[in-house]
Amino acid sequence: MATVIALTNQKGGVGKTTTSGALAAGLASFYDKKVLAIDLDPQGNLGFSLGIDIEDGPTIHDVLKGSVSIRDAIQTINGCDIVTSNILLSSSELDFSGSNREVLLKTALSSVMDDYDYIIIDTPPALNILTINAYATADHLIIPMAPEILSLLGLTQLKETVDSVRESVNPQLNVLGILLTKFNRRTLLAREVNELAENIAQQMDSCVFDAKIRSSVSVAEAPAHGESIFEYSPRSNPAADYSEFIKEVLHRIGHSTSRRI
């Protein structure tokens, strides 16, 4: 049975998609895990950043509409399976209006849950029906966050949404932690945001990851080459940081951190 992890933050530009891609690629490459990545963001950046033509073939929108099965929508690249997204998914609030609209993704994934070790979901920068579907499906949430004061403001609303989902469709939903990205520990702002994030994490019965993702131009360049940070710049600071982050994720979930030789 797959462990489902959703990456979420309603603020854009915090490294959510980069983190989703790094987590999926790292689990597949370093730990020899069977991984399925799901792109729930209408911008389609996860598929694009991993080197897939997001306009070619069925997408998660087709799956949620029921026009294709999840198996028929899966594409494989560099040892990782992925279901892509595109701009058609932006009409989801109108397209998905039935009584089961909050669990469409969970229902769609039920037939492949035993095929994977991990399912990684990249969510849109919004709290909408797509985000709710991710929360309803996930075992764990990870919240990437840039060290900016504005990034903290939306966490209260996110907490309320998590609480609502726990009370309705997914009582076992766990906030695994807050991940600070674009981090420069030498700045006072970064240290202050880290402290504030720790306080908010405690309110969510969670914590801030020890791993912090440092800034680097390689993070911005990698998607243009259709490669994860590990493929594009394996010796960069972010690659090292994401490697430590993945190890910490596995440790917090209680899974083995032994890497493939």
From the spread of the alpha carbons, the general shape counts as globular
Separation, N- and C-terminal Cα atoms = 25 Å
Percent of sequence in beta strands: 5-15%
Oligomer: single chain
Q: What spatial order of strands do you see in the largest sheet?
A: 3-4-2-5-1-6-7
- The average pLDDT is 92
Give the tally of β-strands. Answer: 7
Structural class: alpha/beta
Helix content class: 40-55%
Note the main sheet. Answer: 7 strands, mixed
Low-pLDDT runs of 5+ residues are: none
Number of discrete helical segments? 13
- Element order: H for helix, E for strand: EHEHHHEEHHEHEHHEHHHH
- Round the Cα radius of gyration to an integer and report it: 17 Å
Give your account of this protein's structure:
- The chain has helices at residues 16-30, 45-49, 60-65, 70-73, 92-95, 104-109, 129-137, 149-153, 155-168, 188-203, 217-221, 229-232, 237-253; strands at 3-7, 35-39, 75-77, 80-83, 118-122, 140-145, 174-180.
- With 261 residues, it is α/β, with parallel strands linked by helices.
- A 7-stranded mixed β-sheet has the order 3-4-2-5-1-6-7, sandwiched between helices.
- The two termini are 25 Å apart.
- Helix 1 (16-30) packs across helix 13 (237-253).
